Amino acid sequence: MYGPPGCSKTMVAKALATEMTLNFISIKGPELFNKWVGESERSVRELFRKARNAAPSIIFFDEIDAISVERKSQKSGGSGVGDRVLAQLLIELDGVEGNKAVTVVAATNRPDMIDKALLRPGRLNRLLYVPLPDASAREKIFKIRLESAPLADDVSYKELVESTEMYSGAEIVNVCNEAALIAMKEDFDIEFIQMRHFLGALSRVKPQTTQAMVRHYENYASQHSEF
């Protein structure tokens, strides 16, 4: 899975494991690295061994670009720890092929940096673009997040949705949290969160994804995505 930061790629992986009743093993790419020679590769082997022992299971690699940067872009010339970790990962993925009890899912914000060998058939060859939430999704995020919040009658979901175009799901959650904090700072015993509190939050929380980034993801999706 790839797309802008904060678009719930990790949540999608967790939901997949829950729906399929699989054990969920999650790790961030940088966590595999160790300063001792050979330990990083050993961490990769141990991760897959753990997944096989816990099968049926899903291994979820978050920030996989940290361990799978295209080798021609590295200065190590193929001898660095990053190359050795990637080589070990490719070996383990080849071993998983045909083993229906272990599923490997990964997420990245930089799909263009992924080494092409990782995307070959039998490895991570199914690509899914996870875009910014559209208007309908943003409304659902607001309603779920604010379901138990004491809202004033002037709070307009329509206005909130229209004001959060280009916001990620994580940023929308941040807007909700910031609005509550603004209300509490104004009056700790305040009874309701009002629309002006949300407007104040929107002035502080700005979207980090640009139109140029969206075009980049969409161009990549038009060439690579299969779903």
TrEMBL record:
The family database entries (SUPFAM superfamilies) matched by this protein are listed as:
P-loop containing nucleoside triphosphate hydrolases
One GO MF term on file is: ATP binding
Q: Which UniProt keywords apply?
A: ATP-binding, Coiled coil, Nucleotide-binding
Q: Give residue ranges for domain AAA+ ATPase.
A: 1-134
Which ranges does the record mark as transmembrane?
A: none
Tell me which InterPro entries the record gives.
Answer: AAA+_ATPase (IPR003593), AAA_ATPase_domain (IPR050168), AAA_lid_3 (IPR041569), ATPase_AAA_core (IPR003959), ATPase_AAA_CS (IPR003960), P-loop_NTPase (IPR027417)
Q: Which GO terms describe its cellular component?
A: cytoplasm
The record's similarity note reads: Belongs to the AAA ATPase family.
Which protein is depicted?
Answer: SPATA5
- Species source reads Bugula neritina
